[in-house]
Structure formats: C-alpha cells, structure tokens
Amino acid sequence: QVQLVESGGGLVQAGDSLRLSCAASGRSFSDYAMGWFRQAPGKERQFVAAFSWGGGSKYYADSAKGRFTISRDNANNTVYLQMNSLKPTDTAVYYCAQRKGRRRVTYYSSSYYHQDEYDAWGQGTQVTVSS
C-alpha cells in the first residue's frame, strides 16, 4: 500500500517562497518517478513538475519553469517542490503523485504531464498566495 503525505503548504504573500515536501512509503521510492500537480478552485488538476526515477531528468509546466524546482531525496523517500516568486495564480491544492511502473522506461517525456500516468496520490496541501 503506497502512502504519500504532503506538507509545507500555507498562506504567503506574492513574491514569497514555499517548499513542499512529500514523504512516500510502501514501494521502493527510488524506482519510481514522482510528480507534483495542483488544482485551483473550479479548475481541473494540472501538472506542475516531475522527476524521473533515475533522477536524471526533470520536467516542468511552463507556469513553473524558472520559479519552481523539483528535487528528491531517495535516502529519505521524499520529494520536494521549491516554489519561489509565488504569484496569486499559484493558489491551489498541491498534490504529490507517484508514477506507474517500477523503473519504467519512458519514450515520450510528455507522458509525465498526464495524471493518468500516476497511480498513487497524496491528500494534498493548500497553498494560498495573496496579492
């Protein structure tokens, strides 16, 4: 049974930074790609960032590039999302997710962007950015 637990959300002002954490258990963490998604009120859940299982590749949504950084600590089974220069449009519930397939070979990087590629999800952590 996979369990993902996010933390680190909160209320901040525009321009501030936050670091989200996601602690994983239940599967061999280093063998799975990890991702972050977010869902704003009234909107669909959208991709934010992902980190391949081998640790060599990172992927970002256009809205996150240059401001957000995904990282992972395989020794502690944790994935992070460092968010800088936050904007009110970043307000959302942020979800951590683990991708399907142990040591899965990925031919198309765009597959990381689709939530159907992930089969384990955390409960989410709220991030609110005030103007």
Descriptive account of the structure:
The protein has 131 residues and is mostly beta strands. 0% of the residues lie in helices and 47% in strands. The protein has no helices and 11 strands. It has strands at 3-7, 10-13, 18-25, 34-39, 46-51, 58-60, 68-73, 78-83, 92-99, 118-121, 125-130. The strands form 2 sheets. Strands 2, 4, 5, 6, 9, 10 and 11 form a 7-stranded mixed β-sheet that branches. A 4-stranded antiparallel β-sheet has the order 1-3-8-7, with no helix packed on it. Strand 7 and strand 8 (78-83) form a beta hairpin. The radius of gyration is 14 Å and the shape is globular. The model has no long low-confidence stretch (mean pLDDT 95).
Summarize the entry for a quick read:
0% of the residues lie in helices and 47% in strands. It has 131 residues and is mainly beta.
User: Cα distance, first to last residue?
Assistant: 40 Å
Structural class: mainly beta
Ranges where pLDDT stays below 50 over 5 or more residues in a row are none
Mean model confidence by pLDDT: 95
Question: So how many helices?
Answer: 0
Strand content: over 45%
Rounded to the nearest angstrom, the radius of gyration is 14 Å
Topology as H/E string?
EEEEEEEEEEE
Inertia-based shape: globular
Helix content: under 10%
